[in-house]
Amino acid sequence: MKELWQKFVAAVPMPFAGALLVAFAFWGFVSWDQSHWWSTKDDYGFGWLVPAFVGYVIHDRWGRIREAAAACGAADSPRAGGGANLLLNLLAYGAMAGGAAMFLLGAFYRAGAGSSYPGTLAITLGSAALLLPLLFINAPEAPSARRGARWIDDARVRLVSLFVFPVCVWLVSAPMVSAVEQNLSLFLLRKVTTVVFFVFDILGLPIEQQGNVLVLPPLADGKPNQVGVEDACSGIRSLTACLFAGSFLAAVFLDKLWKKVALVVASMCFAFLTNLLRGLFLTSWAYNYGHEAIEGFVHDAAGYAVLGLTVVGLLCLLPLFNLKITFGDDEDDPAPAKE
Q1: How far apart, in whole angstroms, are the C-alpha atoms of residue 274 and residue 255?
Q2: Which pLDDT belongs to residue 196?
Q3: Is the pLDDT at 35 greater than 80, yes or no?
Q4: From the DSSP assignment, how many helices (H) and strands (E) are in the chain?
Q5: What is the Cα gyration radius of the chain?
C-alpha cells in the first residue's frame, strides 16, 4: 500500500494527489446516494454506468493529467496576473465554500429524511461546486511562475479542465427536483402528443386528441382503441440517457470546448426527434393492431431503440466534428536551393 501511494505521489505531486483522493471519496459517497434512484427509477438506470465511465475517462486522460500537473509546477509556468488572478482565486474559494455548505445541507437532509430529490440534488451540486475549486487551489505551485497570462491560459485552469466531465457528469445521473422534472415531463408529453396527432391528421387518418390520450378508430370487435401517452413516453428517460451518452462521447473523442458543447446539444436534439419517431411508431402499431399490442416487448424495444439511434447518430457526427479543412497546398513548397 505504501509503495502504491509513493507511485501515486510520484506521478501527481502533493497536495494535488491528496485533492484527487478527496475527489474519489466524494464520488464514492455520491454514487452510494444516487444508487437508490438508479435502482428504483428506470429514467436513471443508466447511472450505474457513470462510475465506470468516470474511471475510464480519468484513466484515458491520466497521461495528459500528469503532463498538465508537471507543466503547472514547472519553472516559468503561466499564471494569470493582476485582477484576473485575484478573480480566479476569489471564485475558487467562494465556490468551494458554497459547495461545502450545500453538500453538508444535503447530507444532513438525507440523514433526517432519507433518500429524497432535494437531498440528492444538494449533495451532487455541492460536490461538483466543491471539487473543481479544490483541485484548482491544490494545483502544483511553480517555483517562479510567469505572471500576466490570460486566465484561460493559466496552467491551473488547464489542469482542472481535464476533470470537468468526471466532476460534472454526476449532475446528469442525479434526479431533478420533482417540480422541475414534472414540468419538463409535461412539456415533452404535450409536444409528443401534439406532433403525433398532427402527423396522423395531415395524412387523413381518423384520430382524436383528448388531453394526452389519442383516440383511434375502434377495433374490429367494436372495442375502443386508445393510446395514452404516459410519463414514461414523454422523453425524460431518453433525454437524460442521451445527454449522458453525448457528454461521454464528447469528453473522450473531442478536444475543443465548442465541439463538446455542440455534441451535447446534438444529443438532446436527437433524443427529442427519436422520441417523436417512437411515439409515431407506437401509435401506428396500435392503429393497426390495437392498443394492447404495444404493451410489453414492443413498448420497451422502441424505448431502447431511441437510445441506440441517438448513439449511432452521435457516432456519425464525430468524424464531422474532427474533420479538418485546409486551404491551399497541404505541404509547403520546398525552399529553393542556395547557389
Answers
A1: 27
A2: 83
A3: yes
A4: 12, 5
A5: 25
pLDDT tens track for 156-168: 888 999 999 999 9
Task: Assess contact for 94 and 102: CB atoms under 8 A.
Answer: no
For the chain, the domain total comes to: 2
Cα separation values, 116 from 9, 50, 122, 300, Å: 38, 20, 10, 27
Q: Phi and psi dihedrals of 78, rounded to 5?
A: -70, 135
The answer to whether residue 29 is domain-embedded is yes
All 3 cell numbers of residue 78? Answer: 503561466
Q: Bridge partners of 226?
A: 215
Which of 172, 203, 222 is a domain's end point? 172
* Segment 248-290, tens digit of pLDDT: 888 888 888 888 888 888 888 888 888 888 888 888 888 888 7
In a domain, 327, yes or no: no
Answer yes or no: do 112 and 187 share one domain: no
pTM recorded for the entire structure: 0.78
Task: Please indicate whether residue 294 or residue 16 has the higher confidence score (pLDDT).
Answer: 16
Sort strands 225-228 and 213-216 into parallel, antiparallel or unpaired. Answer: antiparallel
pLDDT value, residue 2: 56
Domain containing 154: what range? 2-172
Tell me how far apart the alpha carbons of residues 85 and 71 are, in angstroms, rounded to a whole number.
18
Residue 296 lies in a domain: yes
